[in-house]
Amino acid sequence: MARYAIGDIQGCYHSLMHLLEQLEFQPGHDTLWLVGDLINRGTGSLAVLRWVFEHQSHVRVVLGNHDLHAIAVAHHIKPPHRFDTLSELLTATDGPALLQWLRQQPLMVLEEDFAMLHAGLYPQWTLAEARALAAEVEAVLQSPEYLGFLQQMYGNQPAAWHDDLTGIDRLRAITNAFTRMRLLDAEGVMEFSFKGELPDIPAGYMPWFLAPDRQSANTQKILFGHWSALGLYQGHGVIGLDTGCLWGRQLTAYALETGHISQVPLDLRDRPADLAGD
User: Fold this and answer.
1) Which of 53, 76, 94, 253 has its CA 20 to 30 Å from the CA of residue 201?
2) Residue-wise over 142-158: b if at least 16 C-beta within 10 A, else e?
3) Structure pTM?
């Protein structure tokens, strides 16, 4: 059985199908690990989510910020962004069932050889601690109280993690680390606005995976996405897989058993003509 981790799909259905064809992916034999942001901004969000739902027994998924945003928009908690491409999903007869299934997915997958999350892992967390903290948010998302959480999910504060955080502040900090974080400073304050390349990181900040004394270093390799300007990144015990397919670059797969990289270019049918933003 082969396992393949795939970077941010963001509704690029045709590109995904090309990549699976290249991999010769065999449902029932092989397994996909998807690093989050399955949907939004590409033209095929509904088709992507239908395909993943149909093959759910052979797919591992973690939630990304665009996935959470789609759930919030579907419940009228947040208005759509100008460049969202969710209308087909939100009006489909099976849309509610697909989004309900999506809401049941974890923030983190942890196995003996790999961990997977969407954006980042707070440096002071061990992998075991991170998995337990992810479970706190997952329990709320999967409960009847999920609407209350979604209504208070948005915001950048608190920007630093403290073990004594409670309530919505605790849940928001956990969610932001897993689904939005790229950078933080030496004091552990997360920065959410930067989306550029490594040489352009503002003074005083560092990528989360280069933080000194990161507790998740020298353990399982960590698969993540979210940072399209970073591109394919392998080093320091992490593998970044968001290679900006939506932005005209590639959709990337990493073979967990061999480390082999497979890529396909953007299928232009997947990109709306007026796309902008991140």
Assistant:
1) 253
2) eeeebeebbeebeeeee
3) 0.96
Question: Residue with structure tokens 């509610």?
Answer: 96
Q: Measuring CA to CA, which residue among 205, 211, 278, 153 is closest to residue 222?
A: 211
Q: Which tokens in the block code for residue 189?
A: 């304050």
N residues, the chain: 278
Buried b (16+ CB within 10 A) or exposed e, 42-51: bbbbbbbbbb
> Nearest Cα to 63, choosing from 78, 76, 52, 51?
52
pLDDT tens digit at each of 278 positions of the chain = 899 999 999 999 999 999 999 999 999 899 999 999 999 999 999 999 999 999 999 999 999 999 999 999 999 999 999 999 999 999 999 999 999 999 999 999 999 999 999 999 999 999 999 999 999 999 999 999 999 999 999 999 999 999 999 999 999 999 999 999 999 999 999 999 999 999 999 999 999 999 999 999 999 999 999 999 999 999 999 999 999 999 999 999 999 999 999 999 999 999 998 765 44
